[in-house]
Every structure is written in C-alpha cells, then in structure tokens.
Amino acid sequence: MAIASPSAPTFSASFCGGRADPACLTRSPPTAAAFPHPHRRLAASARLNSSSPSGAGSGSVSPDNGDLSQYELHHAFSSAARRWGGSPVFVALPTDAMGPGAGQVRRRRAMAQSFRALAAAGVEGVVMEVWWGLVEREQPRVYNWDGYWEIVTMARRCGLKVRAVMGFHQCGTGPGDPHWIPLPVWVLREMEKDPDIAYSDRFGRRSMEYISLGCDSLPVLQGRSPIQAYADFMRNFRDAFRPFFGNVITGVQVGMGPAGELRYPSCPSHKLMWAWRSRELGEFQCYDKYMLASLNACAREIGMHEWGNGGPIGTGNLMQDLENTEFFKSDDGSWNTAYGKFFLEWYSGMLLLHGERICREAETIFRGIEVNTSAKVAGIHWHYDTKSHPSELTAGYYNTSTRDGYLPITRMFGRYGFTLCSTCFEMQDVEEKQMNPVSSPEGFLRQLLLAARVCEVALEGENCTSNLDDGSFQQVLKMSKFYSDGLEKPCFSFNFVRMDKNMFEYNNWVRFTRFVRQMSVAKIFRARLGSHDIHSSAADSAKLGFSFAYS
Predict the structure, then answer these.
(1) What are the domain boundaries of the chain?
(2) pLDDT band at residue 174, thresholds of 50, 70 and 90?
(3) For bias kind Low complexity, which ranges apply (predicted)?
(4) In this structure, what are the phi and psi dihedrals at residue 264, rounded to the nearest 5 degrees?
C-alpha cells in the first residue's frame, strides 16, 4: 500500500531570465461577424430505420452541399448528461486533421459529415490538438490560427463543444511518419546552436520531443524562455478565439511534456503503446547541462558534492530485468538509499516545479474566461506491481511501494483549479498480466483516481488504445464509477481517442453510441430533424453514423 509523502521540496537552484514582452504578430482569422450567430441551431435531415445500404439518400445528411449553416440539430444527449448528472463524452480529432502550417483543414467535407454524426449520437464535443509546430512554425510570435478557427466554427455549427489541447511537443517519429509534426522550425534552429536545450540521457542521446525543463526560465529561445514562449502562445490563442470561449470552447488542456503529458521522455512516446510488453525501464533524462547544473547545485547545498555529477549508476539497460540492476532491484536497490531518495526527490521535484510554472501561467492567462483548464499525467503501468516502479521513476513519477508519487501532482493541479486527465481507462489487469505479470493498469489508475478524490480534483479519462469492443467500454464505465461513486458533485468526462474510419464501421458505431448513451445516463435520444421528433435506438444512430465515415 503506497503511503503519502510530503510534497516535493522547492530547490534553490533556479535559472531566471529577464522577461521580455514584445508585441506579438498575429495572422488574424476572420472576424466573428463573418460567421453565423453562435446560437443559431443546425438542421439535419436523415432517414433512420432504413434497410437500404448507406449512400446517397440513405442515412445521409441532406442537402449534401457543404453549407452547414442551413442545418439545425437538437443536441439532446449531452444536455441530458449535464441535466441528469451523467458524464459527457468527447472525441479526439485525427492527428492529421490539420494541413502543414495550420492554414487548412484536411478532408473538410468528411470532417463536417463526421461532426454531424457525432452530434446525432449525443457526443458532447471534440478534442482539437493545437500544435505549436504548426501555428508558430516559421518565426517566433507569428501565429496562424486559420485552420483551427475553421474547425471551431464547424463544431459550433454542428452543436459540438471543443476542448483545445496546447501541443508544445513533437508528434510522430520523423519526416517519413504521416503524422509527423516537429517543434517549430525556429526552435529547432536554436537547438542546433545549443543542443542542451534538448533532453539527454547518460549515453548522450538527445530527445527532440520537448524542450528540457532545465532551461524553463532561461532566455534560450531568441530572448524568451520556454515558459514565456508557451505563455505567449496561450495568450494569443485566448485573444484569437475569445468569441468562442464558454459557448463553444469549454476546455483547454495545457501540454507539459512529451505527448502533452507531465513527464520526462524516458523512452520515445511512440514506444509507450507497446513498451510494457518488453518491460522497458526507461532512461533518466538529466544529462543536458541545464539539468546537471541544477542537480549539482542541490547536491552542494546539502554538502554531498559527489551526488551532483550525474544520474544514478547501476540502472542497467533498457530491456534488463530490474532485479539484475543495482539501482532498481527490489530488496536492496539503491533507489531506497539516502542517495537514491535525494536524486529521485530532485528529479521528480523538477518535474513538479515545471508543471507548477505552466499551471501558474495558464491560470493567469485564462482567469475570468469561461473555460476549464486541465493537464495530463501519463499511464505508465508496466512495473506497477514491483517495489521500485522503475519505469515510473525514470518518467519523473517518484511512486514506489512506500511512496505516493501522484498525490503531490494532483495537489498541485488542485491549487490552480486544473482538471486531471489520464489514460488507461479501458485497460484490464486480467489481459495485461498475461503478457507482463508485473503490469497493473488498474492498480495505477485506482491510485490516481483516489488521489483525485482526496484532492477534490475533477477528472478527464482517456483510452490508451482505440479498442471499440464492449469489454473496453464496460471497463471505462467501471473505472468512471470508481471515481464518481459517493461524491456529492462528481465531475467526470471522457475523451475517446480517436476519430477515424474504423470508428464509423457499423458494428463499432453501434457499440460506441451505446457507450455514449450509458455515460450520459440517458434512456432515450430525441433528435429534432426538421420539425419532427425521432426516438432513436443505438441501431438508428449507427445507421446515421455509418454514412459519415471519416476517410
């Protein structure tokens, strides 16, 4: 049983740079007056209960001319969820929804049809990833929001809400990846000049996924610190989309690390989908000069100079059994010594300090705006049933069999009014342990949910893999109930990751719409189509959604 520990210490070794506040150059999107009134309702015409195959005139939105302003949709499921205490469901957009430079929406017509299908199914809204590497791509302080403005407007016309994710990280594995979105070009140029802006492990391997938090407050980005660059980006987003806050944009998730999660890039993000199968330990990311300077200063402060020269020795290799390593082994590993505790407190404390800096900026920027702010914690579970939890330690979560590493993070989010987001809601121990006996996604998630309950922090759930089977959906319902049961005012919502062609396949769509209905605690979905009320079953919604496949 993990026990709570005091909050991570504040370290005196900080790096502060003067804050510059030059005027931002913004590529302004069209004015709000150019679009229909935000309260205009949208009409959809569709034939439900049709036995004919999907296609023109069968279960499709009409007229099929792309002019969404002519449609009216009574979005009943989501309002029922709010009215009856249910949990709203959001759907993440495809990673490649935006073209290069954020100037245009890809597959615009298919996305519009998919939005109408989601609204008809009772989905509350969509999750829109807003990429730093696209919006502020070529030059600092020059922002292009055009494509994102179009998506938000499209969502409004369909009666959907939007959760915007501030993506300050890299997406994909490289130029050959169809989902490749690197950091801004001008940031990469600064990394070429000073490679220590990027994280480094003990072998000197650099991670370009996210800027090292060791230089959070240093003016390494053409006179600005990374925290200032993130804040300027969020501030410009707030100003550009101000007409939409409250009525359309209801949430902003702030990225804090690789994959948008508050963690170190202990192993590449694309591996996190399968790393648990090989029990990868991860590598400590503390070898860039900025991280080493902080470590050295903290070691000197307590009179242990030799502890400040680098990360732990004896951590083994990535694929090694933890019991064969000096640092991670269960019974007498150095993770549980005075040195190990010093290092892990510093390492996790730096991550916590990074999260607090960003939370503070975001809270200030969105203060007075009708929008919920949130941040994400990674679901790293493949050594959860061990004493040392090595893969969590290398990611920055000082969580072991004797220490609760998630409570300090949750408390920090709570201080700034942030909602906590986490994955793994669909994962089951009985399946994972067949391939990795020391993995426990349910154990990890229960610990995190208990921390959220104790700290009275609202929760956003996510799935880790795009499973659309009944067992996965039932597991989500089970874990959401674990969090909500007994709370006077439970605040839970779910982000389904993500929208693709497979989601709209008939059988998958039937299961998904049933899940949305179960989450919203709604017995009947009433869709107003033209002047008629139609009572729709799961199969009816499926017929509507089948013709909207996002391809």
Answers:
(1) 89-282+355-521
(2) confident
(3) 46-62
(4) -90, 155
